[in-house]
Amino acid sequence: MKYLSQLNKKYLNGKTCLLRLDLNIQDDELKNSLRLKRASLTINFLLKNNVKVIILSHKGRPENVSNIEHQKSKLSLKDVSKALSDVVDKKIILFENFDFKKIKKAVNDSNDKVFMLENLRFNSGEENNSKNFAKGLSFLGDFYVNDAFAVSHRENASVCAITDFLPSYAGLELEMEIKAFEKVIKNPPKPLIIILGGAKISDKIGVIKKFYSKISWVLTGGGVANTFFAAKNIPVGKSLYDKNSLTIAKEWSKSKKIIFPQDVKIENGEILDIGKKTIENYSSIIKKAKTIIWNGPMGYIENEKYQNGTVSLARAIGKSRDFSIVGGGETTSLILKKHLEKNIKFLSIGGGAMLWYLSGKKMPGLEALDKNNF
Ligand code: 3PG
């Protein structure tokens, strides 16, 4: 894989870069978004080296792209581009269609330096990994940079097919992600613990499976713990749990390495956070760990009343001296909001991609960069 950081500065001067970012950010996370913060690293690096930047991203999952009009306002990148513009302190021009000839002319004629295309998933070519769509995109720039770890598990045109047409590099953020994940995948210092929360459990079981021989404990919370409870016939009332994963959860619930909350916060028949005793127990386990992998919150952290479990564990990690990696948009934005980022050795912009990578599945976006031989 070739890294943007290793490119000769003379090569960059005066060129136009197609920069794939993952700006799939929920409106309420825009204020404390790790993805926006990290995006600024490569943008600023490129601007410093006199490169025009055309940002590519998707947002959400548009259904039936042939009938896109009514979904456009909700899934537009307009607000994201404004938020990013504030973070990098630069005007960002958003193109609302994929008329590549017009866009190229507008970029060439403009004195501005940063541009963005509208949500790529508005075009069916993106998710179909269409060569044609990728070729159209590639027409806009001189080289391509993938700085979107969070979508590198998807075989999409702006992640994979585009590398057939342009010299392609890993951006500064992606380079950090790859190096951080290498640390936990190859030889994680032990004891290794994994903390799993959030809604869905199926991808998370994949991580437990992959790391099983290396882990000492898996600490569970949120919908993950609720799913294990439901699988063990412990009543969960109206609580969120993954109904499709009860069988696999039942199998794994017998493992001695998987630890469940001893007490929880319940309101109106719903489990909304882990309780005090659980926080104490989990914190003492965290203190023994040398490596910590964490994906997904311990409770319904959208509401401030139920953030205590997640925030307390982030604090406990700060007291341990070793390597920790935390991913997932909600968890990382809460960590940033509470100014606890110094407690974590590496915050990943990946949510699903983090679980995918840790489960040992192929990452088509990384493979495409590996294969690129311009
Ligand atoms: C994410 O937010 O996890 C990525 O942008 C991937 O989105 P997707 O699951 O819709 O492909």
Describe, in plain words, how this protein is organized in 3D.
- By secondary structure, the chain is of the alpha/beta class.
- The chain folds into two domains: 4-175, Phosphoglycerate kinase, N-terminal domain (Rossmann fold), CATH 3.40.50; 187-359, Phosphoglycerate kinase, N-terminal domain (Rossmann fold).
- Helix content is 39%, strand content 16%.
- It has 16 helices and 14 strands.
- It has helices at residues 9-12, 34-48, 72-75, 78-88, 100-109, 124-127, 131-138, 172-186, 202-211, 222-231, 246-252, 276-288, 308-318, 329-337, 352-358, 364-371, and strands at 16-20, 52-56, 92-95, 114-117, 143-146, 168-170, 192-196, 215-220, 258-259, 264-267, 270-274, 291-295, 323-327, 346-347.
- The chain has a six-stranded parallel β-sheet.
- The chain starts with 8 loop residues before the first helix and ends with a helix.
- The model has no long low-confidence stretch (mean pLDDT 96).
- The structure holds 3-phosphoglyceric acid.
Task: Provide the descriptors you would attach to this structure in a database record.
374 residues, alpha/beta, Rossmann fold, 2 domains, six-stranded parallel beta sheet, globular, binds 3-phosphoglyceric acid
